Amino acid sequence: MLISVIIPVYNHEAALKRSLASIAQQTYKEIEVVIVDDGSQSPIQSLVSNFQFPIIFIHQNHLGAPAARNRGFRESKGDYVIFWDADVIAEPDMLQKMYQTLQDHPGASFSYSNFYFGKKSMPAQTFNLQALQARNFIHSTSLIRREAVVSWDESLKRFQDWDLWLTMAEQGKTGIWIPEYLFRVLPRRGGMSTWLPSFCYGTPWKFLPWIRSIVKEYEKMRARVQEKHKLA
Predict the structure, then answer these.
(1) How far, in Å, CA of 100 to CA of 103, rounded?
(2) CB contact burial 47-86 (16+ within 10 A = b; e otherwise)
(3) How many Cβ atoms sit within 10 Å of the Cβ of residue 107?
(4) pLDDT tens across 173-226, in order?
(5) What are phi and psi of 149, to 5 degrees?
(6) C-beta separation of 138 from 161 below 8 A
């Protein structure tokens, strides 16, 4: 079964190079990689000749990660799809374990795992709709059956993955948790590095000048997702 690895990238050549190297080490070999360059100014395309697996390279104007993921999905051919961010470094057996989990659970639409953000542990949990409605615990780098994929909301600047999983769950699609740490997200400017500890979103921390704009955008996007999915 073919797995399509869809990578949106914007001006992060060094991160993409490390990420592609971890894809090359995967024990699951039946893959294609779809790189969507979302208007980068750096020479991203020069990287594609250094790897042995099939790579589809697409360049588009800067429209944002959700639009890049949607474009990558349209151009992909895999029976399974994984939206693999350019700052993700995976364990060599990640794809094999995610694929085998879906083989073992034919009623599940996707499989997901724990991960590290830098050195910080980011554990997931068993799939539960009520828990998911309260907060997102599923990273976008999860393996999805092609027929279960829904479009990314291109109007959202944050919480795009939470919105994706909520939309799928509302259609009756469920996931299987692999209780292992199968990948690491490398902190970088413009990526998940804008993540803040949870206490920063409360009083008085959220009013500090250097984090106020981040918290304001966080609260705005969270409210949009809650309104869209009719959450309290």
Answers:
(1) 5
(2) beeeeeeebbebeeeebbbbbbbbbbbeebebebbbbbbb
(3) 8
(4) 999 999 999 999 998 655 434 444 444 444 444 444 545 566 777 788 899 999
(5) -65, 135
(6) yes
| List of residues 6+ apart from 164 with CB closer than 8 A | 140, 150, 152, 153
Cα angle 173, 178, 183 (rounded to 5 degrees) comes to 110
pLDDT of 217: 79
DSSP character at residue 199: G
Q: How many CA atoms lie within 13 A of 190 on its CB side?
A: 11
Distance CA 223, CA 171 (A): 21
* Extended beta strands in 10-141, E state: 31-38, 55-60, 80-83, 88-90, 110-117, 120-122
Structural tokens at position 11:
């001006």
Q: Is the pTM of this model over 0.70?
A: yes
Give the span between the Cα atoms of 59 and 48, in whole angstroms.
13
In whole angstroms, give the CA distance from residue 7 to residue 18.
13
For the segment 137-180, what is each residue's pLDDT rounded down to a tens digit?
999 999 999 999 999 999 998 899 999 999 999 999 999 999 99
Q: Cα(33)–Cα(35) distance, rounded to whole angstroms?
A: 6
